[in-house]
Amino acid sequence: MKPAPLALALVLLTSACATAMSPGPKTPCGLETLDHVIGQPWSEDLLPPRDGRVRVLRPGDMMTMEHLPERLNVHLDDEDRVSELRCG
């Protein structure tokens, strides 16, 4: 193999790896920007203003099973602190 095609092949392989390792799309409910609320006491003012739905779930709460990717689910612990955030 000549040097030029070898160099081109290396460039193509390297760019393919970089593309595969690049971060995926942001979550539909925007939870990637809300890590700072985990462990915080829950209040309506804890989240920044948002266009999508928010569902607050306490231990033992019943919930519907429909999946709405743009809805933010805020899971609270027994002390009303945010324990988990999920889209759905």
Low-confidence stretches: none
Structural class by sheet pairing and helices: alpha+beta
Strand order of the largest sheet: 1-2-3
Instruction: Report the portion of residues in β strands.
Output: 15-25%
State the major sheet: 3 strands, mixed
Helix-strand pattern, N to C? Answer: HEEE
What percent of the residues sit in helical stretches (DSSP H or I)? Answer: 10-25%
Keywords for this entry:
single chain; 88 residues; alpha+beta; 3-stranded mixed sheet; 1 helix; 22% helix; globular
Q: Gist?
A:
The protein is α+β, with helices and mostly antiparallel strands and 88 residues long.
Topology:
Elements: H1 3-21, E1 54-57, E2 72-76, E3 82-87
Parallel strand pairs: 1-2
Antiparallel strand pairs: 2-3
Structure explained in plain terms:
- With 88 residues, the protein is of the alpha+beta class.
- It has one helix and three strands.
